[in-house]
Write a structure and sequence with these properties.
Layout lengths: L4 H11 L22 H10 L3 H10 L9 H10 L3 H14 L5 H9 L8 H6 L8 H8 L6 H9 L7 H5 L7 H77 L2
Helix pairs in contact: 1-2, 2-3, 3-5, 4-5, 8-9, 9-11
């Protein structure tokens, strides 16, 4: 198969960095050690007209921390009408997990025009620390395109108050969504037991601390009492010695 000019140029630019590569499909093996290649790969997403080539590059960028690709990926997502391609972009965005584009991820998740292409973005939204996410995910449980993904993401919050939302899906006809609900409840049960054990351990520790405090207080009281007794004993001895001397003095007169 004849190599496209863009493909040839991409391989040449990558080789110029010292990386040996014969086929662009080898980019699917990129990892965090290949971060220097991200600007090159991102640039060629825009240069290929063929969606299959762009999708390959998009999928190749699916490495946690490749945040330099975020802006181009978002732009590709917004501009495309190809559901399959958009799903691939959303999947890569979810893997990169860029905390700087959480607002954009929330916006995409809530926009029904993107349909099921939002799936993997919703799926991983619960991994981010953002006070908006809980309410966003709860609202998406009523969206049939992404309800199962939202349920999975809600599970990641580890929030006991979300149990009731999982219970809604225990009778769901869709097997994988029902299993997500069951998994979420099991996880919350384990977390509840863990919290109870943690609280029990905390109370036991507090009890031991209180016991130790009382023991120290008792020792201080005993030491104080012993000191006072010694002081009183010395005082009486002194008084006795004083009386004895006074008596001897009286006799000598």
């Amino acid at each position: 198969m004849k190599m496209l000019p863009e493909e040839k140029n991409l391989l040449e630019e990558i080789r110029a960095t010292g990386v040996e590569i014969d086929d662009i499909e080898e980019l699917m093996h990129m990892d965090q050690n290949d971060k220097a290649l991200v600007p090159i790969v991102v640039k060629y997403i825009k240069r290929f007209e063929e969606t299959n080539y762009r999708e390959l590059l998009v999928r190749a960028l699916g490495v946690k921390g490749f945040t330099e690709a975020s802006d181009v990926l978002l732009d590709e997502f917004y501009r495309s009408d190809d559901l399959h391609y958009k799903w691939a972009i959303g999947n890569t965005i979810s893997i990169i997990a860029d905390p700087n584009i959480v607002s954009e991820m929330i916006e995409i998740s809530l926009n029904k025009e993107h349909g099921a292409a939002r799936g993997m973005i919703v799926h991983e939204l619960g991994r981010f620390k953002d006070e908006r996410i809980k309410d966003v995910l709860i609202s998406l449980l009523d969206d049939e395109d992404v309800d199962g993904y939202a349920l999975h993401s809600l599970k990641l919050l580890k929030d006991e108050s979300t149990r009731k939302y999982a219970e809604r899906f225990l009778d769901c006809d869709i097997d994988w969504i029902r299993k997500e609900a069951e998994s979420m409840i099991r996880k919350l049960d384990k977390l509840k037991i863990k919290e109870q054990e943690k609280e029990k351990a905390r109370k036991a520790k507090e009890k031991e601390k209180e016991k130790a405090r009382k023991a120290r207080e008792l020792e201080r009281e005993k030491a104080k009492k012993a000191k006072e007794q010694e002081k009183e004993k010395a005082r009486k001895a002194k008084e006795k010695e004083k009386a004895k001397k006074a008596k001897e003095k009286e006799k000598s007169k």
